[in-house]
TrEMBL record:
This is DNA mismatch repair protein. The chain crosses the membrane at residues 29-47, 53-70. GO terms for molecular function: ATP binding; ATP-dependent DNA damage sensor activity; mismatched DNA binding. It comes from the Bacteria. It comes from Clostridioides difficile (Peptoclostridium difficile). The lineage of its organism: Bacteria, Bacillati, Bacillota, Clostridia, Peptostreptococcales. Residues 422-597 form the DNA mismatch repair proteins mutS family domain. The keyword Acetylation does not apply. InterPro entries: DNA_mismatch_repair_MutS_C (IPR000432), DNA_mismatch_repair_MutS_sf (IPR036187), MutS (IPR045076), P-loop_NTPase (IPR027417). One of its GO terms (biological process) is mismatch repair. Keywords: ATP-binding, DNA-binding, Membrane, Nucleotide-binding, Transmembrane, Transmembrane helix.
């Protein structure tokens, strides 16, 4: 898909949004007019004793209520298309650098012990997560993070997930619909913590009952007595006093039981206004037809038991009843006449008894759908993508054709190809020539491949390997660890893991750059030798041409590649293409000369 596709969809969505906004304003005006007519009608009846005034007033009330219902539906549609426009606009931003403004960047998943995630820009600002994430629920964001950092890739799981993602790629309307609803949920819950859903899930799984059964006598007896006394009062059989006393008694009970009632209803408060959107999302997921086993399994989580649609519809009704508290006048009347809070709490307790143990499965299912749709983003935005071939073998293999970095705009990125089999690859080259970007291109695309997603390449064939990196090294003053020693520890962890004789990929950028050249060459040579095992693929960049001599030493199996620059009118240029053999040029002096240092 190209940017034109999303631009057309955005134009259509924006037009509908504007039309609905205009319609909403017109209905608001009509509501105001009908309300004024209500007042005028009853004023005519009051001052002129004309029955026509009552007729006009009652008719205007009916029209006013009808306009309220219509306006609510129009605003709902307007909200939907506004959200859809935002989703489509984000896709358009992914074709340039606008995606770096997205608020959801996954920085909370950056851990000190996960250096690979930092080196490969998996989480945080300007990261892969920020680029592809379309999830707004906490479960969706967590599942995507879990997919992107899979320390033990499983060939079968990858294959099943690939089939699911391929199917989702063929369901564009469904995918955008889910993203639109998810975006609405994200906006409505922006003032609540991600723990709100988890609190409700824990409430559902808790077997404790907060409303004692003996309270049912009061919750039904008192409202019945109040309503009957009111009817008898209207018929002239009772004075007003009994009605008033029953009203006060119910208000007293509501106030007395308020702390316990709030304990029961509190889990619903935090996201009660989002339940209606969840209901629509569940309905869409439940009705969609899927072919892949992975998606069917997720869908089955929604249909087991009494079914998610029925359950969430009932929960939405309870949520609407609970939200009456936002209208103080009606809320006081409802508590005084119907013991409203008690009935809301009882309804929620009954609902919990039926659906409580299913809630976690429901939200996990939504979360996985969000994560899987996120993994389709690269294929939607990039023209040249493919599904990788991933196998588990005892010896590692990596064969990529025209691979490129997913976070670089496709119009300016340069693709490269390489094939390695249990080898050490020494990559030399001048500054700014593309060595580091190439390593990251390999690493990031391998992360996508293990997640089950399409990758940015013409073809991509690899085995399951543990990924180790040493690129962005930081010192730790509090621990007295210098940058150089931090890199030593990083390389040490790679060597220790290699002793397990498990397939691994090592990506090292400018090895031991923090020390003098003589020590660096000796240390780097020994590190390369220790990592040159039949179950290891090592890719090491360096400015030390001496490391290239390992290729002919007979001690290890080393292949040399390089990047280089060229000059036109004394100006430096790069083609960013990897080439066989060692580099024969340097450009440090030229760059310093261009900067005015030399």
């Amino acid at each position: 898909m190209g940017i034109e596709y999303f631009s057309k969809l955005l134009e259509s969505s924006t037009e509908k949004e504007l039309l609905l906004s205009k319609k909403s304003n017109n209905i608001s005006t009509a509501r105001l007019i009908s309300f004024l007519i209500v007042i005028a009608g009853f004023a005519i009846r009051f001052y002129n004793k004309n029955i026509v005034g009552i007729f006009v007033g009652v008719l205007s009330i009916i029209i006013f209520i009808a306009l309220l219902v219509i306006h609510s539906k129009v605003k709902e549609e307007e909200t939907y298309f506004k959200s859809k426009s935002e989703v489509l606009n984000k896709y358009i931003k992914r074709f340039g650098d606008g995606w770096k403004e997205f608020k959801i960047d996954g920085k909370e998943y950056l851990k000190d012990e996960n250096s690979q995630a930092k080196d490969l820009d998996l989480f945080g600002r300007a990261s892969l997560y920020q680029y592809i994430c379309v999830a707004n629920t906490s479960y969706g964001k967590n599942f995507l993070a879990k997919y992107l950092w899979n320390e033990n890739p499983d060939e079968n799981v990858i294959l099943e997930r690939q089939r699911a993602i391929k199917e989702l790629l063929s369901k564009d309307d469904f995918s955008i619909h889910i993203q639109t609803l998810s975006n609405i949920i994200g906006k409505e819950q922006k003032n609540n913590s991600d723990s709100s859903i988890e609190s409700f899930i824990e409430y559902g799984e808790n077997k404790n009952v907060y409303i004692p059964k003996w309270m049912h006598i009061f919750t039904w007896g008192l409202p019945t007595a109040t309503i009957l006394s009111f009817i008898f009062c209207m018929l002239g059989f009772l004075p007003v006093l009994p009605v008033f006393l029953l009203f006060i008694i119910q208000l007293g009970f509501s106030g007395f039981g308020y702390p316990r009632l709030m304990q029961t209803l509190a889990p619903l408060f935090s996201f009660s206004r989002s339940i209606q959107v969840y209901e629509k999302m569940f309905e869409v997921l439940e009705k969609e037809t899927f072919e892949s086993a992975y998606l069917k399994e997720l869908q089955d989580k929604l249909s087991k038991g009494s079914g998610v649609s029925r359950g969430v519809k009932q929960l939405n009704s309870i949520g609407n009843a609970v939200n009456l508290r936002y209208n103080q006048i009606l809320y006081i009347i409802a508590c005084g006449v119907l013991m409203w809070n008690y009935h809301c709490a009882e309804a929620l307790e009954r609902w919990k008894g039926i659906y409580g143990n299913q809630i976690r499965d429901w939200f996990e299912s939504i979360g996985e759908f969000e994560a899987l749709i996120s993994l389709t983003v690269v294929s939607h935005v990039k023209e040249n993508t493919c599904f990788p071939v991933i196998k588990y073998e005892d010896t590692p293999r990596l064969k990529v054709e025209e691979v490129y970095h997913p976070l670089i705009a496709e119009k300016s990125v340069i693709a490269n190809s390489i094939q390695l089999n249990s080898q050490t690859c020494i990559i030399t080259g001048s500054n700014m020539s593309g060595k580091t970007t190439f390593l990251r291109s390999i690493g990031v695309n391998l992360v996508l491949a293990y997640a089950g997603a399409p990758v940015c390449a013409k073809s991509f064939d690899a085995t399951c390997m543990a990924i180790f990196t040493s690129m962005r090294i930081q010192d730790d003053v509090s621990q007295g660890i210098s940058t150089f020693y931090a890199e030593i520890l990083r390389i040490k962890s790679m060597i220790q893991y290699s002793l397990k004789e498990l397939p691994m990929l090592v990506l090292v950028d400018e090895i031991f750059k923090g020390t003098n050249s003589a020590d660096r060459i000796i240390g780097a040579s020994e590190a390369v030798k220790k990592l040159s095992k039949p179950w290891v693929i090592s890719m090491v960049t360096t400015h030390d041409f001496e490391l290239c001599d390992l290729s002919g030493s007979g001690d290890v199996e080393v292949v040399n590649y390089h990047f280089s620059e060229y000059y036109v009118d004394d100006k430096i240029h790069f083609d960013y293409k990897i080439k066989d053999g060692r580099c024969k040029t340097t450009n440090a002096k030229q760059l310093m000369r261009m900067a005015g240092i030399l």
